[in-house]
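can u pls check wat happens w/ acetyl coenzyme *A
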Amino acid sequence: MSTDKDRVNTVTITDNQTGNSIELDIIEPTQGDRIIDIQSLHNKLGLFTYDPGFTVTASCWSKITYLDGEKGELQYRGYPIEQLVEESSFIETAFLLLCGHLPSQSELDEFSVEITKDSLLQEEIKRFFSGFHSNAHPMAIMVGVVGALSAFYHKYLDIHDPINRKDAAKLLIAKMPTIAAWSYRYANGLPFVYPRHDYTYVENFLHMMFDLPTDKYIVDPLIAQALEVIMISHADHEQNASTSTVRLASSSEANPFASVAAGIASLWGPAHGGANEAVIRMLQDMMSSEKSIESYIERAKDKSDSFRLMGFGHRIYKNYDPRAKIIRKLCHRIGSESESALSVENKKLLDMALKLEGMALADEYFIKRKLYPNVDFYSGIIMLSIGIPLNMFTVIFAMARTVGWVSQWNEMMGDDSSKISRPRQCYLGATKRDYIPMDER
Ligand code: ACO
């Protein structure tokens, strides 16, 4: 990593046991808090650092996404998320994240055509779907099928060639809606629908999800627009758990398709991308339960109970999640502009969510810990409202986040100074001891 020495200052660390000191460089990022470069710490002081969950450790440099948790800001390549959601399309945002600049009209046209033409899956890949149990979760199918792509695209294995890397990245972005929609179709015993070249990225996904041989699906522009906003808002989020998983897996120069499959697995967890599904399950449970909202809040505060309010809290955002703000607004728009989209049941769910939000935000426990609704608190309600089945929420998140994963992977592989990720540990196990023969134990 190149550091501009003129802009670097230092910090001194003293080991109070030995009295030895070391002066470490402080790196000045273009935005955000300064960072201590601790790479020489062990060589000079014989010390490692302990930071479970990487709460204060930068694992890489990046020029892709910036977020400020205290101010509630999110930028892709410097552009605020609020502006991108208003002005851009998902495919333009994908170009921006992957290539680093807003495309010219001809660049955008070319990129769109490339993505569209690669959206078909090879017929052999289709057979992978039928290997899954009919009640498989679409995320499980997605992990498997995306991992299986590594067996099909050997020519993309030259990860040191920037053109090859971009081709692999575009191929993944292109195939994701087809894999996502087909995961749903298979899990629901429905025939696969092939992509169409006259649809936009999001329209194509909706078409492959909902078109029936018996009943033609007409894309509703409001639904396509809502999904576009959700997709742009989820496209990247710097070094979150799934992106770090993709980086860590591919730091060994592993196959990019297999590495992205690892990212999908990480995203699936309810503490990460799986939260959108968990939020709805929690709200549905609240609606059908005799218990009051207060009792759920009390449970979430009880340390002897592992229950947490799903959709609340974020590792980085300690003020508000800017994506949640955008999606919250969209929730209301869907509700007011499309009566049919927001069914009575979903309206009740939205009311329940808003009531829960208000009560949690006024509660001392949540205030003290800076626990605000995150993007997943609202995105699930919108997706339900526009007819997306519950078990597809995280799949849609994965489809959007693929853009971030491949952009971050491309950046890392293009960095000559990047190394295999290999954290240290603080060993607390037994000290060296002799093996005890069986008859003496
Ligand atoms: N409900 C109740 N208490 C909570 C919640 C919650 N949702 N989230 C955090 N807390 C409490 C913790 O118990 C802890 O309390 P303590 O200090 O008294 O021990 C404190 O707040 C800090 O929590 P941590 O787990 O240390 O915070 P961390 O930054 O590690 O976790 C996370 C962030 C995983 C998002 C957490 O807030 C959570 O589990 N939220 C619910 C799941 C969720 O909505 N995930 C989606 C995240 S957004 C995304 O991935 C797109």
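Residues 2-7 have pLDDT under 50 and may be disordered.
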